[in-house]
Structures are given as structure tokens and as C-alpha cells.
């Protein structure tokens, strides 16, 4: 994703009728925000820009700079929304149209991007950066000749930008002009001799035109200029492999995995090379690791099954082929290979059935003249080549709804619960508060106070039961505090006993009941994570929930729902009901309760974040991304990771 450069914006709107203090206030937040943006401290810049906007929402500069910050944090929809606010106030501000066009390009909305960049160019006809973006839009719309013409115009205006040469070269390459493309890549290097990407592009082109030595020289030069770019190591490994230098190729793939241990394609290709040099155990290790990273990729199970077969571990081979078939039922080669394994196991009927099924699928694809998406795999399973493109590897993946749910659900912010804070060690802690909490804290010493937090373990886990026994044993809320500490340390049964004592002693305080309910929920979740037998690969995640956890979640939701009726407008209750519904996979119910929480307390940032994730799980991507953007504005830094992961192009 292209990073926005910070352009100089002069703060306007200082009229004589404005109070001097207000002017200074705005100027401080503006320049502080702009300074942080120039340092690429986008998250830190947001609070200053939010304050600037709250002081004077008519200042287009605040909206513009916040849009820049959001874009660089991956919140593309939020950035577009802010640029729209700028355009509404200042329709002739060309940079807002330009930056909106770039953001739309990130969302693959190329026609809309074309409209915006055309407006920007009408306002500033010879701005080379605007024309550059226009060329990119033409390229993405597959209007390659127009892209070449626009990039050529940019070069006439300013030939010092290597990216223009590279982009025109790529457009020429697609139109079949290999000589022109190579010439442009050469010019990019001449213009910027220390630009790693220029050597990378030329290296790949040299490989494509069968000049491996030149390709290796270019990629080695690119690596010397940028030693952390995994693409250069990966591409060099492919070339070295094709040059029959597997040891050197392995060294490059090892370097890739040092930089990014979860780069699936590098792991897969390393497994192939390890197999070919007879290091079967290493190959199996890499493939097994991949089952966690890409659990729905048939290639992994198919090839691991083939290795198990050669090692004589026939039942394991059958299991892996069966998993591959479960993921992709039309996998002809997996049926045929499983047939051979079953034959060796003495299962003649099963072998015959599998073989017939495999041949039937092969004929189906031949008769319909449709391409089997796994035609890349040879039926022998002999690892005949490496996979060079991510899209080829991903062709073999079918990420199910449950797989995506697992990825998203792991990102939810936890319950809003009571925690014990040592204010000597955490004097500036900001937490949620309410009258029920104040009635407890007035009985506690100044050193230790209770607070409501969505991150209670950050404070409480570091406090021992021994410390509580020494400091608070005679305190009327001793049992409550001890229960909180015990629960935070995973001693749920003991915590439950203390919460029961506290509830009996203070039956009117709902926060004590809340703590007990959440502790029981945490215990159910803990048991669920370790309990039960290991399920076979490919099972839907929703089936792994045991009956105990389902009952516990239902009881917790029921108790909290009753509490919400007796204590209406309590965001800490409705928020937790929503969170427990997430644990129970009741996403629509969770969204309803998060919305109730927001209606009561629109400043509760964690609620927007969690509702955004729940909306994503329910298929409402646009609304979910909007909620994540709002949460980011309100200070939830995780929002931007989620936006990049789930809302990006």
C-alpha cells in the first residue's frame, strides 16, 4: 500500500472575531498532529486531530490530516469518509480529490478513483503526482496503452521518479513490449541506483526472458540494498532451484522464514526441496506446521500423505488423503492415490471404489471442458516443482466460514470486569467507574482500589493472594477482592467460593454478581480450550464446543439479562451479555446487545470494536469496517490491525 506523503497545509480560519485562546488552541493541535504525521506516528497523531476537529469542525485541514493518518493505518473507508468531509467544505481542494482517488484504488474501486483523479487534474493540470495516480488507475482498469501515454507525460514533466519508469515498464511488459519494459527498468536504475525495487523488477524480467545469471545478479543487488525484503530472497530461491542449486535455494527460503516465520508459501516450497533431497522428516515438519497456518489447503495434506506413503506409514497416508478429499470433494488425484494405499492395506473394495471415483471425476472435467482447479498437482505426488505465486497456492485453499470466524473471534476485546489496581504502581490508570463501584472503593485503602476494565488481567495478575490476605483480611470487601485475584490467576473454583461469600454479605451490589458470572464464564472457556478429545482435521469449529461450555454461556446470558432488566441503562452489563453471546457463536444477538450498549454509552470505544468484528462475522463487511474505524478514532489501536487484516483490498 502506497504511503501518503505529508504535504504542507496552512491552517486557515483564524478570523479576528475568534478568541485568541481558541486560535492558539487550534494551532497547537494542528501543528502537533502534523508533526506526528511527518514522523509517521499516525496513531499518536489521531488524538490531536480528533481534538482539533472537535474544537472547530469547519476546519477542512483537520479532516484532511486525519484522513491521511487513517489511510496510513489501513483504515481506508475511514480515510475516504474524512476526505469527503474536506471536499464538502472545500470542493476545489485538489489534494483531497487526489488522496481520495488513491484510497479508492486500494479498495479496487478504479472507476470511482478515475472520477476523483480527473477532478484533481482539472484543478491542477500539470501536477505530476496527480498524473501518476491517473496512470495507475488506467493500469488497473486494464487500459494499458492509456497508462503508457500518461506515464510518458509524467516522465516529460519529471523524469526523476523511478516509480514512473517502473510502472510504464510494467504496462509495456503486459502489452508484449519486453524490450521497452527492460529499457524502462534500466532507466529506473539509472535515475535511482540505490532503489532496491528497480533491481527486483529487472531481476524478475531477466528470469522470465531466461537470463538466470542476470536475474540472480539483480536480485542479489536488491538484497544488498534491502536485506529485509522477503520477496527478493523468495524469488532468488526459485531461480536457484531451477538452476539445480537446492542448497542455496534452501538458504534463501530459510532467510525468508527468519524474517516472516508464517510465510506459508516459503514453508511449502522448503518442504518440497527437503523432500527432494531426502530430508523427509524436515518436509513433514514443515507441512505439519502449515496445517495450523492454512488448515483448509489441500496441497498440504495431499503431499504429506504422499510422503507418509513412501515412508510406509500407510494409515497416516490414508488420513491425509481423506482430509484433502473432505476439503475438496472433486480431488481426483487424492482418490486415486488413496486407492493405491488402500490396496496395500488389503482393503480391496475400498480401493476399487476410490479408483472408480477418481476416474469418474477426471472424466467429468474432461467432458465439461472445465479446468480442475487442482490440475497443478501430478497424480504421483512427486513434488515436481515449486509454486512461485501466492495465488497458485491459495487456489488450493477453501477458507470456510468457520476458519474466518476463528481468525476474527480471536481478536475480540475481553469482558468488562472488576480488577484490583495498585495505584502506587499504576497512578495514571484510566478505567470505567460508576456509583456501585464508588460504594466499594470508599471502604478500601488508598493503595488498592477496584476499577472496571476490559483488560483486568493487566493489573490483577501481578497481585498475589498473600498480599491481599496481609492488606485486606479485615476489610468488609475482602472476599470480593480475593475472588477477583483468584479468578485472574485461573483459580476459578476458589474464586467462586469467595464471590459467593461476598454476594451473601452484600446482596444489593450488582458488581459482585457480575464478577461471579464472568468468572464462571472464564472457567467454562478455560475448560473448553483444554477439554474433550482431539477432533479430526477439517471439523467445523462450532462442533468442538462441549455441552458444559454451552450450558455455562446460556446460564450467564440468562443471569445478566435478568440483571439488565432490574438495572436498565447499564453498559457494563449489556456489553458483557454481547461478549458471552460471541463465545456462544450467537453473533446476531451479540450485535443487538452491542448496539444497546452504544445507545446507553456512545463513548464506550470497545463496543464499537467488538460490534465491528461481530458484523464482519455476520457478513456485513462495510458496516463492520465503519465500526472498526470509529473505534480507531476513539483510541482502540487494535482497530487498525483489524482494518488491515479484514477490511483491506
Give an overview in words:
- The chain has helices at residues 20-38, 42-55, 60-72, 76-89, 94-106, 110-123, 128-140, 144-157, 162-174, 178-191, 196-208, 212-225, 230-242, 246-259, 264-276, 280-293, 298-311, 314-327, 332-344, 348-368, 390-395, 401-409, 435-441, 457-460, 465-472, 478-488, 492-505, 510-530, 547-566, 571-583, 587-600, 605-617, 621-633, 638-647; strands at 417-422, 448-453.
- The chain has 649 residues and is an all-alpha fold.
- Among the domains are: 1-125, Serine Threonine Protein Phosphatase 5, Tetratricopeptide repeat, CATH 1.25.40.10; 292-376 and 391-397, Tetratricopeptide repeat domain (Serine Threonine Protein Phosphatase 5, Tetratricopeptide repeat, Alpha Horseshoe), CATH 1.25.40.10; 414-530, Serine Threonine Protein Phosphatase 5, Tetratricopeptide repeat (Alpha Horseshoe), CATH 1.25.40; 545-649, Serine Threonine Protein Phosphatase 5, Tetratricopeptide repeat.
- It has a two-stranded antiparallel sheet.
Amino acid at each position: 500500500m502506497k504511503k501518503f506523503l505529508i504535504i504542507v497545509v496552512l491552517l486557515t480560519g483564524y478570523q479576528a472575531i475568534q478568541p485568541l485562546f481558541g486560535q492558539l488552541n487550534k494551532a497547537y493541535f494542528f501543528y502537533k498532529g502534523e508533526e506526528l504525521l511527518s514522523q509517521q506516528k499516525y496513531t499518536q497523531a489521531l488524538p490531536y486531530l480528533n481534538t482539533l476537529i472537535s474544537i472547530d469542525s469547519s476546519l477542512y485541514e483537520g479532516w484532511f490530516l486525519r484522513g491521511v493518518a487513517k489511510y496510513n493505518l489501513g483504515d481506508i473507508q475511514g480515510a475516504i469518509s474524512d476526505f469527503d468531509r474536506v471536499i464538502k467544505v472545500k470542493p476545489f481542494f485538489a489534494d483531497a480529490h487526489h488522496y481520495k482517488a488513491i484510497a479508492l484504488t486500494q479498495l479496487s474501486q478504479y472507476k470511482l478513483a478515475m472520477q476523483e483523479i480527473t477532478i484533481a487534474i482539472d484543478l491542477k493540470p500539470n501536477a505530476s503526482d496527480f498524473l501518476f495516480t491517473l496512470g495507475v488507475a488506467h493500469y488497473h482498469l486494464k487500459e494499458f496503452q492509456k497508462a503508457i501515454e500518461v506515464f510518458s507525460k509524467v516522465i516529460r514533466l519529471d523524469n526523476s521518479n523511478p516509480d514512473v519508469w517502473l510502472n510504464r515498464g510494467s504496462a509495456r511488459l503486459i502489452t508484449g513490449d519486453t524490450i521497452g519494459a527492460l529499457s524502462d527498468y534500466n532507466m529506473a536504475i539509472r535515475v535511482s541506483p540505490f532503489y532496491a525495487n528497480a533491481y527486483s523488477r529487472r531481476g524478475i524480467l531477466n528470469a522470465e526472458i531466461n537470463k538466470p545469471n542476470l536475474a540472480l545478479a539483480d536480485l542479489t543487488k536488491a538484497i544488498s540494498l534491502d536485506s529485509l525484503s522477503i520477496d527478493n530472497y523468495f524469488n532468488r530461491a526459485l531461480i536457484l532451484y531451477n538452476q539445480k542449486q537446492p542448497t542455496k535455494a534452501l538458504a534463501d527460503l530459510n532467510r525468508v522464514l527468519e524474517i516472516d516465520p508464517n510465510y506459508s508459501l516459503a514453508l511449502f516450497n522448503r518442504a518440497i526441496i527437503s523432500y527432494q533431497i531426502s530430508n523427509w522428516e524436515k518436509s513433514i515438519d514443515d507441512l505439519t506446521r502449515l496445517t495450523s497456518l492454512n488448515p483448509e489447503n489441500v496441497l498440504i495434506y495431499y503431499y504429506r500423505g504422499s510422503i507418509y506413503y513412501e515412508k510406509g506409514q500407510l494409515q497416516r497416508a490414508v488420513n491425509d488423503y481423506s482430509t484433502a478429499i473432505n476439503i475438496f470433494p472433486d480431488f481426483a488425484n487424492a482418490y486415486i492415490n488413496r486407492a493405491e494405499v488402500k490396496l496395500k492395506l488389503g482393503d480391496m473394495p475400498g480401493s476399487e471404489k476410490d479408483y472408480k471415483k477418481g476416474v469418474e471425476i477426471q472424466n467429468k472435467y474432461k467432458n465439461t471442458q472445465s479446468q480442475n482447479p487442482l490440475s497443478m498437482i501430478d497424480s504421483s505426488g512427486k513434488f515436481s516443482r515449486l509454486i512461485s505465486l501466492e495465488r497458485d497456492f491459495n487456489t488450493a485453499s477453501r477458507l470456510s466460514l468457520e476458519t474466518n470466524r476463528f481468525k476474527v473471534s480471536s481478536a475480540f476485546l475481553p469482558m468488562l470486569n472488576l480488577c484490583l489496581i495498585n495505584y502506587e504502581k499504576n497512578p495514571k490508570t484510566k478505567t470505567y467507574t460508576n456509583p456501585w463501584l464508588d460504594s466499594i472503593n470508599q471502604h478500601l485503602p488508598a493503595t488498592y482500589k477496584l476499577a472496571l476494565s476490559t483488560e483486568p488481567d493487566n493489573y490483577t495478575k501481578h497481585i498475589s493472594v498473600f498480599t491481599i490476605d496481609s492488606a485486606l483480611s479485615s476489610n468488609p470487601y475482602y472476599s470480593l477482592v480475593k475472588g477477583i485475584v483468584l479468578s485472574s490467576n485461573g483459580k476459578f473454583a476458589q474464586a467462586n467460593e469467595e464471590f459467593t461469600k461476598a454476594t451473601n454479605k452484600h446482596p444489593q451490589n450488582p458488581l459482585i454478581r457480575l464478577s461471579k458470572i464472568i468468572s464462571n464464564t472464564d472457567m467454562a472457556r478455560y475448560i473448553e480450550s483444554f477439554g474433550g478429545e482431539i477432533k479430526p482435521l477439517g471439523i467445523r469449529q462450532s462442533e468442538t464446543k462441549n455441552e458444559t461450555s454451552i450450558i455455562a454461556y446460556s446460564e450467564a446470558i440468562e443471569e445478566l439479562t435478568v440483571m439488565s432488566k432490574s438495572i436498565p441503562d447499564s453498559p457494563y452489563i449489556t456489553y458483557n451479555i454481547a461478549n458471552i453471546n460471541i463465545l456462544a457463536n450467537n453473533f446476531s444477538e451479540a450485535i443487538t446487545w452491542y448496539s444497546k450498549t452504544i445507545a446507553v454509552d456512545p463513548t464506550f470505544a470497545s463496543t464499537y470494536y467488538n460490534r465491528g468484528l461481530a458484523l464482519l462475522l455476520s457478513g456485513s463487511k462495510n458496516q463492520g469496517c465503519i465500526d472498526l474505524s470509529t473505534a480507531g478514532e476513539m483510541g482502540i489501536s487494535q482497530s487498525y490491525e483489524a482494518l488491515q487484516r479484514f477490511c483491506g483490498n
